[in-house]
Design goal:
The complex is a heterodimer of chains A (467) and B (187). By secondary structure, chain A is of the alpha+beta class. Chain A folds into two domains: 255 residues, no CATH class; 155 residues, no CATH class. Chain A is 26% helix and 29% strand. Chain A is elongated. Chain B has 187 residues and is mainly α. Chain B has six helices and no strands. The chains are: A alpha+beta (467), B mainly alpha (187). Chains A and B meet through strand 14 of A and helix 3 of B.
Chain lengths: 467, 187
């Protein structure tokens, strides 16, 4: 008998506690927006991957293999180590050259890649693989077998006619498919010494000319695969070769998912994200409700200015990616005439019909932009709201539009078709890459088409507005 | 003393009709008016900021209790002040004892100063209710609504006070009150 009474007592006690806790949440009825999964393909299991390396065998590449007095030959050093870097990434490495077609390279011939003879051909021009570089071929291979990691070494010297119509779609179609599968494309540009001939420089008349005076010229390592593997290749190269300040290299990540993560999933939003004004406010409390929704509770005067909420770029944007050029806010504001939680019923919460409440600082594309700032209650100032009430403000922050940072990153190494002849006539020591900006634009546009607006964070403010 | 009581009685007669309007309004506010009533419609159309309320998801009904309290407390304060001022002047006018050339003018100066203080207090009370944050309902009023409250209150309570002092002022000091000497001898 006594034991039954005790059990009932315990039951009533816990019921009372849960009711008090429910009341303490003090929120209107709402659904937390589910984040659309951030589709970065990651290999979570331990299955070792294959790595496929493709060397551009066109004759213009030959100049990288010959030393240029006074200049640092990074090509030879980097390619020398690429085999070891590839082994760090996957279990088996396959080597190919590409030009007119893809040709496998036997293991005992790999060392030839850094020798001038690798790029020479004694047969007739039509039989040689060094007369053109069909860069879309390795992309096609990557599309066919997306589980592998693909490394392409090339000078990316593509004429305008290769970047239009059918030739262009040969490149963009497989790229689209690769990005759709959550894969990314990392482009590492390395300024290396050059001692050779650059072919196929377009002239104003429509023909082509060659140039032999260049002492430096960038080459590119394009890595297709998971972001993790791309970063590993980049990190290894940085550690081994790009240690000197004068080593000029550039990096960008073409991806349809420049968003690193949803901040709610790992509960990465804390008191540090909100302005100190709120932290110092009366009755401040920070808590997660409904498992993943951070809620800032406080009292604030209606004369107060807007409330700043900041998110570190590194927490949301994939490093080296194009970033996000536009963020979007979706928000809902409720108010209750009754401001004591214990007395608020569901019906007391009234939904505000105003939706222009807060503003974002803009995009996160530039390397100088370190934070995404949200000015909460800047469009609808607190002084325009009724004081003496309790408010519940729910805000979802979306990445709306991807950026195009890579175009800016590689801009200084690019020369347009129409400017190529004039540029060559200036006898430059450092030769630029033909249509590089255009190539970046094309790659970005494919990636941006695949981009889906992504929820990066949801949070709520629960505050009493005082007079 | 009998003259003072007579003055107070006459003053109350003067205050009566206007005070009745005010009391009727106060009682209506305390009891509460229906949402379909003419007064509620008037409030909804001209006094409150319906747009702001609708933005916040509220309607007149949601905030009516705050508004009713605001109005009856405002009018109780103004009515009390007016009655006290009118009766005070009516009683104290019997103690004005001026025996100097141009005494009518001096009587008028006394009345004008007293009345100015009354109007000043009237304005202060109205502004306290409508412009300060003392009352939550103040934020539900529109700009034109506040102007109407200020004007209607001033007109009603100044006329009420004037009627009270017009009839209640001591006969020998009648010259102090504007137009009071035009009253028939019976008063």
């Amino acid at each position: 008998m006594n034991s039954n009474i005790f059990k009932y007592f315990v039951l009533i006690y816990f019921l009372a506690i849960s009711l008090v806790e429910a009341k303490d949440e003090c929120t209107p009825e709402f659904e937390i927006t589910k984040s659309n999964s951030i589709a970065q393909s990651t290999n979570t299991d331990d299955i070792e991957k294959s790595v496929f390396i493709y060397f551009d065998q066109s004759l213009s590449m030959q100049g990288y293999t010959k030393n240029q007095p006074g200049q640092n030959n990074l090509y030879v050093n980097v390619i020398d180590d690429l085999q070891q870097i590839a082994e760090n990434v996957g279990s088996k490495t396959y080597y190919h050259s590409f030009g007119k077609s893809i040709v496998p390279i036997k293991e005992n011939k790999i060392s030839q890649v850094i020798k001038p003879s690798f790029y020479e051909c004694t047969s007739s021009a039509s039989d040689c693989n060094n007369q053109e570089s069909k860069i879309h071929l390795p992309f096609k291979m990557a599309k066919a077998n997306p589980d592998g990691t693909y490394i392409i070494v090339t000078d990316l010297f593509l004429s305008s006619k290769q970047l239009v119509g059918g030739t262009l779609s040969q490149l963009t179609k497989p790229l689209k498919s690769i990005l759709k599968k959550g894969k990314s494309v990392g482009i590492i540009g390395v300024m290396s010494s050059f001692n050779g001939t650059i072919y196929d420089i377009p002239t104003m008349e429509g023909g082509t000319v060659s140039y032999t005076e260049a002492q430096k010229r960038p080459f590119y390592i394009i890595v297709i695969g998971d972001q993790k593997e791309i970063n590993q290749v980049k990190k290894n190269l940085e550690e081994q070769h790009f240690t000197d300040a004068e080593d000029s290299y550039k990096y960008t990540l073409i991806t349809s998912t420049p968003i690193l993560q949803n901040l709610n999933e790992k509960k990465l939003i804390s008191e540090d994200n909100i302005s100190s004004k709120v932290l110092k406010a009366e009755n401040f409390k920070f808590d997660y409700i409904k498992e993943t929704l951070p809620v800032y509770k406080f009292d604030i005067r209606n004369k107060s200015k807007s409330i700043k909420f900041s998110i570190n770029k590194d927490n949301i944007i994939v490093k080296g990616s194009n970033g996000v050029s536009k963020f979007r806010i979706e928000n809902t504001l409720w108010s209750s005439k009754e401001n004591r939680c214990s007395k608020i019923n569901e019906d007391d919460w009234k939904k505000d019909r105003r939706i222009e409440i807060s503003k974002t600082s803009g995009g996160l594309t530039d390397s100088n932009e370190k934070k995404l700032d949200i000015s909460m209650f800047s469009s609808l100032p607190l002084e325009k709201m009724f004081w003496g009430r309790k408010y519940f403000y729910l805000i979802d922050i979306y990445a709306e539009k991807p950026g195009n940072a890579s175009e800016e990153t590689f801009k200084e190494w690019s020369v347009r078709d129409s400017d190529a002849e004039e540029f060559k006539d200036g006898n430059p020591v450092e030769f630029k890459t033909l249509n590089l900006t255009k190539i970046m634009k094309i790659l970005n546009s494919v990636a941006n088409n695949e981009f889906q607006p992504t929820l990066i964070a949801s949070l709520a403010l629960n505050f009493n507005l005082l007079k | 003393m009998i003259n003072i009581f007579r003055s107070l009685f006459l003053s109350l007669i003067g205050l009566g009709p206007f005070a009745a309007i005010s009391i009727f309004f106060i009682v209506s506010m305390i009891v509460g008016i229906g949402p379909e009533s003419a007064l509620a419609t008037y409030f909804g159309d001209y006094i409150i900021n319906s747009e702001s309320l609708a933005d916040a998801g509220d309607s007149f009904e949601d905030v009516s209790s705050y508004l009713f309290r605001f109005f009856y407390e405002l009018n109780i304060a103004l009515l009390s002040l007016t009655i006290i001022a009118a009766l005070s002047w009516s009683a104290s006018s019997h103690y004005l004892n001026i025996d100097a050339p141009g005494k009518a003018k001096i009587y008028f100066i006394h009345w004008a100063i007293f009345s100015s203080i009354f109007v000043g207090l009237l304005v202060a009370i109205i502004l306290y209710f409508t412009q300060s944050t003392a009352y939550l309902a103040q934020q539900f009023l529109s700009g034109s609504g506040k102007t109407q409250i200020i004007l209607i209150s001033l007109v009603l309570y100044i006329i009420m006070y004037y009627a009270g002092v017009l009839l209640g002022t001591a006969r020998f000091a009648r010259s102090s009150v504007l137009l009071a000497n035009k009253l028939p001898g019976g008063f």
